[in-house]
Amino acid sequence: MFGKPSRTGRALQYLALAGYLIFLGFPLIWLLSTAFKPPRELVRLHPTLIPSDPTVQNFVQAFTEQELGRAALNSLQVSLASAVLTVLVAMPASYALARFRSKLGTAALGWVLLSQLFPFVLLIIPIFLVLRQVGLANTHAGLVLIYVVWALPFALWMLQGFVRNIPRELEEAASVDGASRVQVLRRVVFPLLAPGLVATALFSFISAWNEFFFALVLIKTPELATLPVALARFVGIEGTARLGPLAAGSLLATLPSLIFFAFMQRRLSSGSLAGAVKG
Amino acid sequence: MTTLAERPDVERAGPGRRPNRFRSDRTAIYLLLLPSLLPILVLSVFPLLRGIYLGFTDARAGRNVEVSFTGLANYRELLGDELFWNSFKIGLLWAVGVTVLQFLLALGLALLLNQQLRFRGVARVLAVVPWAMPPVVVGILWKLVYHPDAGLLNEFFHRIGADGLRTNWLGDFSTALPAVILVGVWAGMPQTTVVLLAGLQGVGRELHEAAAVDGASTWHRFRHVTLPALAPVIVAITSLDFIWNFNSFGLVYVLTAGGPGGKTMLPMLFAYEEAFRYGNYGYAAALGNVMVVLIIALLAVYLRRRLREAN
Fold first, then answer.
1. Residue A166 — left, alpha, or beta (φ > 0 → left; ψ -120 to 50 → alpha)?
2. Domain end among A36, A58, A80
3. A178: region left, alpha or beta (phi > 0 left; psi from -120 to 50 alpha)
4. In the predicted model, is pLDDT for residue B100 greater than 90?
5. Which residues, other chains included, contact A130 with Cβ-Cβ below 8 Å and sequence gap of 6+?
6. Smallest CA–CA separation between B54 and chain A, in Å?
7. CB A130 within 8 A of CB A240
8. Cα(A171)–Cα(A169) distance, rounded to whole angstroms?
9. What is the pLDDT of residues A35-66, one digit of tens each?
10. Are residues A23 and A95 in the same domain?
11. What domain range is A45 assigned to?
12. Which of A15, A38, A58 corresponds to the end of one domain?
């Protein structure tokens, strides 16, 4: 892009790149290494980057002793439910937003940006009061409800971009051929929208899986805690030997979103997400 | 043949049915939008409005507590609350510090990734990984790096023979805030990088080539071709980053929980403590209101300056 840089220029570029790789990579390597270290290596005065005696004991321990296993299951339930519900609710609305001009649509999209502006503390107290009134405080159902509502504005915005990318002519052609509106939606729009639906589901899943604040405030029963909350509670337990299971649990908590990001990146590069980016 | 036979039928039906069909379209739109809009109204718009209102009351935790409208009393109290001012200062330092560093580092990385360099693929993957991590995990990860005994950073300083630099990064009054800011930069850089990289790839190649033919230096082309073309993306992402950083909670909650001695007590943490440790709902909501107004004011100043520069 900048033409051929000089040799020193190139060397400086590689130096900078190396700096970035170290800054971005080493903390990750450290997490990985800590997760595989046995307790006696963790308390050693001078820890090494590579565990000299790697073990998977930390992973086992994290899931048996600290109840991270149950928390992971809770997280999985909540996140899956949020993903499915978000897609089901967002699908019809995003179609309407993309295909019909409506002031309501602009308002809904404006809410995406506006809702970013407000600190959660303004929302959490009234939400807590509303949920308590309908008996959903301290339940997974209540949490799912909040996650869906919270994911919806962005999901709508993203999904309507996908709808816009489906040429209107295809729908018109189908309806000229005598297909009813429902048939057009089912046979033409739905298959073409599949990547968009997957992307929306993934987005909703990850935001629920990673979410911390609402889960911390709304869920009081320890048995119902989601993974981030359980992990955060785990941090409070001091002792250097406990760092191993903590790192192992953290690593496992990252896996789902890491897998989904890998998946999304392929989608991103293949351009099927372009619609979502362009809005 | 069939199309020919059908066409007159369509034309006959067209004008006469139009208004009716138009109305049914309208109902259809609302029916399609309803499942989305209703929950957003009930669980997002309404709570927000109520939250803003709570900031003008003396609401407290507990059932059957009477709530009365107190007007500006909460704000008068905030004005005299030294803890609030302290936390606000820290929040501003944090949000501005993280956003600026995040932007500069992300721009550098995006420019590098936009070149034909070896190891670019590795850097691209690494640049996205922190984005995929839950904030709580990012916090735990850096707690391990900063750990006074078993941490990577202290061990690094030991290995290079700089034992004097070893310290309890998150527990020391002077290092806690910078240490936490660095984590914020690390966590938020990926998204900014990806957005800037996408923006860079949209900068016209022809413009660059034309400028190069005219003999413009690399710096000149960056300053007068790349930056102006990138300006809208930069303004958008830095504004969003600033909002996100100002409102961030989980990361610092895990890292320091506001300590040591309130040195990293971000406004969100402060509000959380007020609301859920002391039960002062009204006071916490008032704090939230003040933060919204301040964010909007700061953004307005920033956007106006950028707009003026653009003209």
1. beta
2. A58
3. left
4. yes
5. B42, B43, B46, B47
6. 9
7. no
8. 5
9. 898 888 877 777 878 888 888 888 888 878 76
10. no
11. 7-58
12. A58
- Pick A261's closest partner by Cβ from B128, B271, B295: B128
On whether residue B226 sits in a domain, the answer given is yes
Q: Which long-range contacts (CB under 8 A, 24 or more apart) does B208-213 make?
A: B208/A1, B208/A2, B212/A3
CA distance B179 to A67: 30
In-domain check, residue A2? no
Residue with tokens 């971000």: B266
Q: Examine the domain organization and report whether A112 and A146 are in the same domain.
A: yes
Contact between B139 and A235 using a beta-carbon 8 Å cutoff:
yes
Nearest CA to A243 among A35, A69, A44? A35
Amino acid present at A249: G
Q: Measured over all CA atoms, what is the biggest interatomic distance in chain A, rounded to whole angstroms?
A: 77
- The answer, for B13 touching chain A at a CB cutoff of 8 Å, is no
* The total number of structural domains that make up chain B: 1
Number of domains in chain A: 2
Q: Nearest-CA distance from B47 to chain A in Å?
A: 5
Q: Across chain B, what does the average pLDDT equal?
A: 83
Nearest to A212 among B48, B135, B243 (CB): B135
Cis peptide before B260 (omega within 30 of 0): yes
Run of H or E including A129:
helix A120-133
- The answer on A180 and A67 residing in a single domain is yes
* Residue B251 near residue B143 (C-beta atoms within 8 A): no
CATH code of B237's domain: 1.10.3720.10
Cα(B254)–Cα(B82) distance, rounded to whole angstroms? 24
Give the predicted TM-score (pTM) of the model. Answer: 0.83
Q: Is A156 on the interface with B (CB under 8 A)?
A: yes
Place of tokens 């993306």: B233
Q: Rounded to the nearest 5°, which phi and psi values hold at B9?
A: -60, -45
CB-based contact, B240 to chain A, within 8 Å: yes
Beta pairing partners, B69: B57
CB-CB under 8 Å, B155 with A123: no
Closest to A47 measured CA to CA, from B99, B236, B148, B23: B148
In contact, B271 and A121? CB cutoff 8 Å: yes
- B74 touches B282 (CB < 8 A): yes
Confidence of residue A4 (pLDDT cuts 50, 70, 90): low
- The answer for residues whose C-beta is within 8 angstroms of residue A34's C-beta and 6 or more apart is A42, A243, A244, A247, B144, B150
Under an 8 A CB cutoff, do B117 and A261 touch?
Answer: no
Q: What is the percentage of chain B residues whose pLDDT exceeds 70?
A: 92
Classify residue B61: in a domain, yes or no.
Answer: no
